[in-house]
Predict the 3D structure of the following.
Amino acid sequence: MQGNQSILLFFSVEPMEGTVTILFFVAMILFPQNFAVLAYAFAGLTVMSALARITLAWHAFRDEPDESD
């Protein structure tokens, strides 16, 4: 990193934010016949979200060679 730049991690691009989570649970209540499909979709999006956050953190905090040479 250069100078005094601070690292800010914004997770607004993640698919499993609070509103989406609530909507999924509402859908599970309204459509109990589709619970299994909704649950697997929710789990898949949660895993994708976790992997995206890990990747973002990895890139944000990894040691990069000094480019001032």
In short: The radius of gyration is 18 Å. The chain has a mean pLDDT of 78.
